[in-house]
Amino acid sequence: MMTAVVISGAGLWTPPHAISNEELVDAYNAFADKYNQQHAEAIENGELEAKPKSSAEFIEKASGIKSRFAYVKDGILDIDRMRPAIPERGENELSNQAEIAIEAARKAMSAANKEACDIDAVIVSCAYTQRAYPAIAIEVQQELGIDGFGFDMLVACSAATFGMHRAYEMIKAGTAGCVLVINPELVSPQINYTDRDSHFIFGDVATAVILESADSASGEHQYEVMSTKALTKFSNNIRSSFGYMSRANDVDPYGPDKLFHQAGRKVFKDVCPLAAEHISEHLAAHQLTPADVKRWWLHQANINMNLLISKKLLGRDATADEAPIVLDRYANTASAGSVIAFALHHEDLGSGDYGILCSFGAGYSIGSLVVRKR
User: Fold this and answer.
1) Is the preceding omega at residue 364 within 30 degrees of 0, hence cis?
2) Preceding omega of 184 cis (within 30 degrees of 0)
3) What is the largest CA-CA distance in the chain?
4) Nearest CA-CA partner of 214 in 1, 3, 2, 18
5) Fewer CB in a 10 Å sphere around the end CB: N or C, the chain?
6) Which residue, among 81, 54, 80, has the nearest Cα to 201 in the 3D structure?
């Protein structure tokens, strides 16, 4: 009989620096005033658009976000810079992303009662990696003293769940017995802090989970993965076009089109019904209904999306206990949002309780795992 696969530990690393909506708005509005003054003639002639003002109230109403964490706060609120000031590290130094990945990994390993010698593979799955190669996962593997293999995955906001899918499949296939999946979401360098509609969306964080055969699991809180489900559907409505081709294209590698940008209203209209249908079908495959689910660990991009999706499924508003929200403090953390929610809100469930982790975002991509507490 094929072995069961469990999530046996979760880890969350939170950066030391927080930025409130008020701080971010003060910096953005000061930048907008300066920009509009410097380009007054072009704006008057219709050659440029004036930068609109923002407000903390606008941000919270539009997204539910009240603050976010930053790996490095310096530079973000400087109206003459408007991006984090992160000193470059040498090739023989630990990379920034590996550094935060290791922090989360160690917490997950501790929760799962695992040592480096127990782990067969490392997957780093996130929205961005800070270099093309060598893989961040292999660097993390080296630093933690893990034998076996590692690789990176990029699936935007569904990277965490898709990474867990790969771990589940490897364990089911017998190519690994224990897999460490890490989501070091260092997204602040790709945020356009001069754009009113997107400067507030993201925050930095790192999360990690251990998946392993149920036969070897000894963590205090174990969740059997009943199954996984994935969907991708191409859309340009969420895009980040930074890449090595800019050198050959003779274009600005840091232009607005190369940073994160989206058509927010279109995303909302497209993704909400897709995600609700995806979750409903995944549960139905186990003869479950939304009412059978004790906890919804949903992607944390926008509170209005989560409220609408859960209402479509439940026929009513979900309670904070059923579908915990963490984006008010963490903002959108790309793929890590559902894992943050899981890390902070899973220990209270009882044996036999069902839950679902689900991410949705650029691609479009949707990934889910139906789990049951052992």
Assistant:
1) yes
2) no
3) 74
4) 3
5) N
6) 54
Alpha-carbon distance 274 to 268, whole Å?
Answer: 10
| pLDDT per residue as tens digits for the range 180-228 | 999 999 999 999 999 999 999 999 999 999 999 999 999 999 999 999 9
**What is the model's pLDDT at position 311?**
94
Residue that has been written with the tokens 């890590």 in this structure: 336
Long-range contacts of residues 139-142, Cβ cutoff 8 Å, at least 24 apart? 139/94, 139/95, 139/98, 140/98, 140/101, 140/102, 140/105, 140/182
Residue 32 near residue 195 (C-beta atoms within 8 A): no
- pLDDT by residue (tens digit) across 4-57? 999 999 999 999 999 999 999 999 999 999 999 999 999 999 999 999 999 999
Residues marked active site are found at 157
Tell me, rounded to whole angstroms, the distance of Cα 147 from its chain centroid. 27
Numbers of helices and strands, H then E, in the chain: 11, 13
DSSP 8-state assignment for residue 41: H
271 φ/ψ angles, rounded to the nearest 5 degrees = -80, -35
List Cβ neighbours of 250 (8 Å cut-off, separation of 6 or more).
none
